[in-house]
Specification:
about 130 residues; mainly beta; Cyclophilin; 1 helix; 9 strands; about 10% helix; globular
Length: about 130
């Protein structure tokens, strides 16, 4: 497990990347840190381009609030905090296509106050 900080705008979120489900994807993300990008939004998901290219690795078609994932189809890092346009309910969160599970974040509820266009930075929490 690797502790990271995800900064969205001026707000910082603590998170962990865990290797249990997608160890190669997590390794590639950690090797690319720090990462700086621009937030995009799809329903209650903030996602953004990262300089990582990985194939599907134990990819999932359903996620939970607070999950962090890598989207192979778009080379993006995803933060889920609620329903996407494909979700049938608030509790059944469906990404646009399968994602590699890479971790969890704390305080994900506060992502509701953020929007597309904000600067996003991921760095190690040393």
């Amino acid at each position: 497990m690797a502790a990271i900080i995800i900064q969205v705008g001026e707000e910082e979120f603590k998170a962990e990347l865990t290797e249990e489900s997608a160890p190669e994807t997590v390794r590639l993300i950690l090797d690319a840190l720090p990462i700086e990008s621009t937030a995009r939004q799809w329903g209650d998901e903030i996602y953004f381009d990262i300089p990582v290219h990985a194939d599907e690795e134990n990819a999932r078609q359903r996620v939970s609030k607070g999950d962090l994932a890598y989207w192979p189809a778009g080379s993006c890092f995803c933060m889920f905090y609620g329903r996407t346009p494909m979700s049938p309910s608030d509790e059944e969160i469906v990404p646009a296509s399968p994602v590699n599970p890479v971790g969890r974040m704390h305080g994900w509820e506060a992502l509701r106050s953020h929007a597309a266009g904000e600067k996003v930075v991921i760095r190690r929490d040393d």
